Amino acid sequence: MRSYLKVLIISMLGLILFIPSALADNAVKRVGGSNRYGTAAALSKQVYSTASTAVVVGGGSYADAISAAPMAYQKNAPLLYTNKDNLSAETKTRLKELKTKTVIIVGGTPAVSANTANQIKALGISVKRISGSNRYDTAAKVAMEMPAASKAVIANGFLYADAIAAIPYAAMNGYPILFTNQTDINSATAGAIKSKGIKSSIVAGGTGSINASVFNKLPSPKRISGSNRYELAANLVQQLNLPTGNVFVSNGFGYADSIAGAALAAKKKQSIILTNGSNLSKETRVIIGRKKLSSFTIIGNTPAVSSNVANQLKNPVSGKTILIDPGHGDQDSGSIGNGILEKDVNLDIGKRLNTKLNASGALPVMTRSNDTFYSLQERVNKGATAGADLFISVHGNANDATSANGTETYYDETYQAAASKRLAEQIQPKVVNALSTRDRGVKTAPFYVIKYSKMPSVLVETAFITNPSDASKLKQASYKEKTAAAINDGIVSYYK
């Protein structure tokens, strides 16, 4: 009896220990405040309990904040914001909490007024100001406050999104961020490059930000660009090989939050990527999938970064490329019965699945999105070309006997047998439940598209076109919607 109880207890403990990891979503944390000042203060609390030095910039002076962020890192100082004319309440409170002795203001009096500086002094804090005649000059002066470095990050001083993802790289390596415009190197920037002995440079942004003429005048330049701010941020993370154990995510148009978030990412030895406020941007999904990211810190509260983005980041299909293959098409109608064509049902369900996967944060790709015919090999090729993580082929079943009915899901054992079986086992019961059909089980078969696709692959036979009861369900939009949702849920469960 004792031996039996011991085995039972061990088995139960094993089950308890196994379940949480098996059912884990991606880890998502959010740090934000009621405004940019509150968010910067909240971010500082993630690292600093006290700080003898703090860096303060104007809440709308994004260029100043970008150049200040690497210096703040080097001085082990939080980056905080203030209103121009009065010290922001959130920042005042935070400076008191930090027991700060010295504040470095970055920017001239048009950004942070003398009155604001005096209010900081009234807290018993000494104030030093670093400012220049313009943003180029201010950045150059900030650079001179940093340790010696042979490399600099160069960005357009008016295109703030370009430099954000480079901030952790610059900060952690002690590199200054200097500014140009698209067509000219400002004398202050040129002077800083010469004075600091900069031998090489990372240029953040394409030729629309810094043209080829300016690029060629910079010391040993390397350009990192993207088709938009989201791809640029992703490419900076990828090409600079920045750490991604817990990636910071911010609104690509919320500069104040993003810059402060990038400063914190540096302190955490992490990187930052950008998205839009309402949806996970495609380019951001790509880097999530490519780097297999699964832990995120969102910068800013809603609506700066919506709950929808948070939910997409949590979803384990986020960033995964899923190939959806609606079977048949054009002259190949597939099965015909009870007034419907299989090719039409497959496409309808495929489109609905595409919508659901996209909403979940995945990168769905369809072999066909209209009534087009592709050969079986072409479908396999599309999956390989897309670099798909999964291949899902959607079909309707048929039999000479109209009594044949139900749902079955197939996998092949040629490639990824165990993973394909597990995927089929997650999808099959959910589709059966959605359609209230007979469960015909998970089976193996050498169907071409799943036999020759090298990623985990399944072929779902949703129901029988030739069975009146099954077909009546496949005619209804509500059941096709439920089927797509069931396949989507099965894919999510597979990744969990």
Automatic annotation (TrEMBL):
It is an enzyme of class 3 (hydrolase). Coiled coil: none annotated. Gene3D superfamilies: 3.40.50.12090, Zn-dependent exopeptidases (3.40.630.40). GO terms for biological process: peptidoglycan catabolic process. The keyword DNA damage does not apply. It comes from the Bacteria. PANTHER family: N-ACETYLMURAMOYL-L-ALANINE AMIDASE LYTC (PTHR30032:SF1), N-ACETYLMURAMOYL-L-ALANINE AMIDASE-RELATED (PTHR30032). This is N-acetylmuramoyl-L-alanine amidase (Major autolysin). The gene is lytC.
